[in-house]
Every structure is written in C-alpha cells, then in structure tokens.
Amino acid sequence: MVKIATIEYFRVPPRWLFVKITDADGYHGWGEASLEGHTQAVEGCLDAWAERYVGFEADDIEHIWQMCWRTSFYRGGPVFMSALAGIDIALWDLKARKLQVPIYQLLGGKVRDKLKVYAWIGGDRPSDVKQQALARKAQGFHAVKMNATEDMAWLDSPSSLQSAVDRLKTVKELGMDAGMDFHGRVHKPMAKQLAQALAPHFPLFIEEPLLSEHITGIQQIAAQTSIPIALGERLHSRWDVRPFLESGCVDILQPDLCHVGGISEMKRIAAMAEAYDVAVAPHSPLGPIALAACVQVDCSLANFAIQEMSLGIHYNEGSHDLTSYMKNPEVWDVRDGYIEILKGPGLGIEVDEEMVRRESRDAKAWVSPGFIGPGGEVREW
Questions:
Q1: Number of structural domains, the chain?
Q2: What pTM was estimated for this model as a whole?
C-alpha cells in the first residue's frame, strides 16, 4: 500500500478549483472541488484536510471518505461536500490510472457506449435563443437547457411568463428538446402558473421549480403538472436526497458530483434513485474534471438519462472553456446528440498541468451574480 504524499489545489479561471493528489510512488490523480461563488471557503477546508490526510493509504478511498464525513462532527453542506468531492475524485483517478483502467471499470463496468448530452443557451437573462439553439444544433446537440425567466417578483404580472413559453416554442420548432430551468428564482405563486403555461409545449423537464427548502410546494407543483420535475444541484448528500425520493416529487434527480462528495456519493445517490424509478441527469456546469467524473459514473448507471455539458456556457468568459486545461479536448465532440464514453485510464482526460499551474497564479475567485428588483429588494438569482 502506498501513502498519499501531497494534496494540492489550484484556483483557475473562469471559476474552477482543481485538486491534485500524488502518492509516494509518484502516481497522481486530479479532482475538482469547484463551488461557484465560495472558492475561498472550499480552499480553507482543503487546507485542513491536506494537513490531516497526507500519509493515509491512497487506495483506501472509502475509508478516507468516511473519515472526512464521520470524524468531523459537523458534516454535509456545499462547502464541506465540495472539498470532499475534490479529494474523492482525485483518489479515484489516481487508483484507476495506477491500474491502467477507466474509473468505470472499478464501478462495475459500463452499461452503455455513449451518453446523451445537452448544452446551455440564453444566458442569465435569456434572449436570442433561436440563433443559439441553431448553433448548438450545428455542434451536434439535440437538446438544450435555458433559464425559464429573468429575475421575478414573488407575485409578478402573469404577462411576464409569456416570454418563457415563446422561447420554448421557438426551440421546439427547430426540432430540438429543451429543459426549462426555473433556477429557484420563481416563487410558488408564479411557478404554478408557469408550469401550467409550459405544459402544452412539452419541455424536456422543468428544473428547480422552487428552491429545495420548499419540498411541500414542490410536491404541490408535481401533483399539478405532467411535466417531469428535475432538481438536485442544491442537495449535497444521500440524506438530503432521501425526502425528495420518499415524497415522490422528483422525476429526474440532478446531483452535482462536485457538491455531493464526489464519485463515491454520486454512485450511492444514483442507486437510491433507481429504487424509486427516478432518472439521474447529473448537474455539471463546471470544468472538464467535473464532467469527466460525471461521465465515468454515468456510463455505469442503469438509470442515467442525460448529461449537462458546460461547453460554451455563459459563465465561461474570456478564453477558458470546457476544452481548456486538457490535452485531449476532442473527447467532448458531440455527434448526433451524444458523446462517446471516455476510454483512457482514470478519468479519461489528460490534464495540462503546466497550464493549470500557470493560470492559477493570481487567479481571482468568481463572485456569484445577483438580482436586485425595481424596489431595491433582493431577488433570487
């Protein structure tokens, strides 16, 4: 057994946090601990764990996961679980690279050879969706996702909902499917109306119809509509997910692998969802390491539905995109709505460490945008 020698992290543009673990024999693995808008907090957690877990057996992935979870007394939440995800993903990558197999071979093997994918259009204040959808279609996508609305008051004019219907119709007329992300920015008085208005146009799903703290309201909307309900990016463990499965108010579970403690917990959450006949469509608007980790789990899941990709997402400002920081960006090529599974060892991507180290120098932490209403009130972003 070989011990962990170093745990490093790298803050890189546009808003990502990469983790590298190296063992005493020189084998290494990469993880991603990105938590949008809370980079410094995750870095603090990683500092503490780097001091503690250097010297542990690198192969003992589950033991280290349980040590992080059970010996901390306070557990869970986005910061804690994102830091744990960075370590967990890197350990899986290290172990699989050492064995010269893809991670999915250590998860029971693959059940499919390619994965259905979708990409974002429209931005935070959705507009120009026809041209953007056509561009995605030219890239090979058959499905997209867009924000359903701009910022919205607790009780807004019903006329503010029509633009969401019009944009969905526009994309559907191009022969594409579209998920409509309410993003938790629509409160119950408006969300009920919006779900009803969208239903005749058959969106692929509606995402986060309400914030996840409002499980009773989500149950009410789920009972009202035939549209599949998708949620999960702000649930951070199997214990967070459980009441949504038990209440029957979610049809498509969207855990973010970077926010649920990594590959280990994602696999457990997906198994729970399968027992409730709930599909899994991992949330992944982040970097290439996060997506590669999702892909490794996706191809091992019977209940996988579709994978989000951050290619060209509106947060990838400047010269950095999903294909950055890697030497084999061609693995993200989309053909007829699908990507091939990753066949290389470990995560299946080759990280450009020189670029990571260079771009991490003086990298600024990304700050979450916010919305302020016309009365000066804070609105959900």
A1: 2
A2: 0.97
